[in-house]
Amino acid sequence: MRAWSRDVKKRLPRPITTAFGHKTAQRRTWRVNLGAMSAICALCFSQVPQGIAGPLPMLDAESRQQWQAVGRVNGAGFRNTSGCSGTLVAPDLVLTAAHCVTSDGRLWSERHFLAGWFRGEFTAHRVSKDIQIHPLYALTTGAPKFAYDIAMIRLLEPIERALLPPVDLLPRNAVSGSTGLLLGYQNTRPHALSGAAGCPRKPLRASKWVIYGCEVISGTSGGAVMVETQTGWKLGAVIVARQGAAGEALAVPVNDWIRDAVKEAQKREDLRK
After folding, report:
1. Cα torsion at 105, 106, 111, 113 (round to 10°)?
2. Which residue has the higher pLDDT, 215 or 21?
3. For the chain, first and last CA: distance in Å?
């Protein structure tokens, strides 16, 4: 992660840093302008090591098999060593962070999603047909921008449920629990899914994001925060940044904009039947 300048540190004693840092086929590094805040891709996840210290570890084979719906979001090609993470939430829809699909305020025309990516192998590979970011992301500046740092990648070809079932969203008004399971591809280990369970949830007053007490680093932007419910694991939030000296995960909870996009995807799926 890029170091903070002294003057920024004085103004923001608890810095928040986005997890960006993609490279295209031309190997150009892109950055998102967030006012006084540096933009760098970040975030991560891990198996069951509860209460771990430091960046999240690589998942074992059994855990990776359970979370094939989480994959890498690349600008081009299969073997990029930088990128973001994303989660399949409908057969033709991937949820990620808005700064993973934009550059200097412009929307990228194409993204690749590699579900279950592990050292050159994957469950499914699809290219984007359309990309939508939260409508308030481009209209907001400063720290409040993080609350809208979410995007939907509509896939050119859907991924059949028989091949890979999408994850379910946490229902509206459901209790999200006191901990979360963080999942994503960090750029220090870009070819294997990392993550951690038991990350304590730290709600913030009068804000539209939440903090999870596990360290995330570059590459895990757009990653999933899964929460366990009585009916199984549900997607509760999207990792979009790291904050504070400990690099804890800042995440945007599943909201109506995300739910509405998944409902529209369900209608498309019904028409295909």
Report:
1. 30
2. 215
3. 46
